[in-house]
Structures are given as structure tokens and as C-alpha cells.
Amino acid sequence: MTVSEWLAKGESYLARRRVPEPRANAEFLMAETLSVGRLTAVAQGGRELTARESHRYWSWIKERGTRRPLAYLLGHQPFLGLRIEVTKDSLVPRPETEELVIECERLLKSARIAAPKILEIGTGTGCIAIALAQLLPSATVFATDLSQSALDLAQKNALAHHVSGRVRFVREDVFSGQRRPGGWADLLVSNPPYIPTGELDRLEPEVQAEPRLALDGGKDGLDAVRAIVSAAPKLLNAGGILALEIGSEQGPAALKLFQAASFEGVQIKRDAQGCERFAFGVLPARGGA
Ligand SMILES: C[S@@+](CC[C@H](N)C(=O)[O-])C[C@H]1O[C@@H](n2cnc3c(N)ncnc32)[C@H](O)[C@@H]1O
Predict the structure, then answer these.
(1) Distance between CA atoms of 68 and 62, rounded to whole angstroms?
(2) Are residues 36 and 60 in the same domain?
């Protein structure tokens, strides 16, 4: 059978199993089978697959049909043009988190800090820390997570993208208080777990396959957000920026938390889908507000 025929067969198999975007999924798996880009794979429509390629492609299609996340099958996910390795121990980086990184880059550049110091809480694959280190070549990044397997993966990703000299990964529990000296960071950024516990069972099967530690934000989804916002004034320099990704219903609560922790210029921003998704604030000078 040709590439085109396998693509059609894969698409219809995935569609019957209610996999979202079945055609795109079949194309990505074909591209991985042929070790080429997606467009190149599609352009080779008339090429016959070898027995080995057909076997590989069809095993992946069948596995994707069980709703295992595409990124876990491929073993990687693009993030701001970087190939980020992912495993079942890490959240799959999302497009809205790319928007968070771009906004952080913009805020740090407009603050004109020569060599910004960045703290990331809950680094997962390391995508935020690594992308920021690449976008801001004079920055140093300190990134934490509770999951050692996520930290090992993040370290591997940092090495692959040549920023391991400027990004340090440390195992730390956001709920156990920060042991580092305070007043260190110019930016504290986090995409914390923010899904309310009661909603986890209703998520798409692909999301349920991701680590619960990366998703579960407690009863109202705000446990980690509260811990980060309350620790932030001790961790940031005066004028430092707190930037969080939040759930689409959490804007009003995040606004109150930021204001209660004395942040100024607090803004809740929407993502490209139009959902409230990010909270930003600036720590005033000591003794201010
Ligand atoms: C939503 S994921 C974000 C991962 C990555 N930064 C991203 O944006 O794709 C949240 C991360 O927080 C970590 N995490 C969960 N609870 C934590 C805790 N108590 N202390 C530190 N990190 C925690 C999880 O292991 C996970 O990697």
C-alpha cells in the first residue's frame, strides 16, 4: 500500500475511535515512520511502504487509537521551534504556554534588566526554562519541580538545546517553603497544576494519561497558585515580575490573590483562544504599596 492509502486507512481508524484531528495524527505518525517532516511525508503519497514501515506505522496508529497522547508516541513535542523531548512523566507542552513565554520575554526586555535572573516553579519538560534561556542569552534560570523524573528529562532537554550552563534544575516542593535566600529573581514564572480535582475524571483521555501531579490543583484548582503567589514576594527583587498560567475560570480569584500579596499593575490576559489564561503582576519596591 502507498503512503496515501495508509494515511486514509489510519485516518478512518482514528476517526472511528474518536481521536481528535485524525488526519493530522495519521500524518504525524507517517512522518515519524519515514523520519521526514509532515509535509514531506504527505508529498510522498505514491510511495509504497516497506513491510517494516507498514508495521511500525500501524502499531502507532493502533496505540493512538487507545487515546495515548500523540506526543508520548512520538517522544517529542515542538515548543517555540524547539524539539522538546517528552515522556509519560511530564506534561506535554501546550501552545498557550508558548504565549506565556513570549509575554515573559517581552516584559523582561522592556524592564531592561541586563542579566535577568529567572525562577520557574514546576518545570516539567523544562520547556519554559529552556525557551527563556534561549530567547534571553544573558539570563540565568533556576527551575524546580517535585518530580525527579521530570527534572531528569528537563536536564536532558537543556543539554540538547545547549543551555544547561545557564539553567539549574532543583527538586523542591512548592508547598514546603523555599529554602533559597529571598529577593533573588527578576521573574518568577510558573504553569502550575491548576485543574480542580473533581474535574480530572471528566478530561479527555489524552489529558488523563498525563501525570496527575502536573494537573491536580486541589479542590478549587488553586492550591499551587496560592502557594506560589504567597511565596513570590519573598523570592522576587523589588520590581520583579510574577507570571502565572491559570485556568480559564480562575482570573477573578488570581486577581484577588495577586492584589492581596501586594502586587501592582496586575493583569489577567487572554490566550489566543480568547480564554483568560495568564496572570501578571509586579512586586513594588520594599516599603511600597
Ligand atoms: C502543568 S505542569 C507544567 C510543566 C511545564 N512547566 C509546562 O509548562 O509544560 C506542572 C508541573 O508542576 C510540577 N509540580 C506539581 N506539584 C508540585 C509541587 N508541589 N512542587 C513543585 N512542583 C510541582 C509537576 O510535576 C509538573 O511538572
Answers:
(1) 10
(2) yes
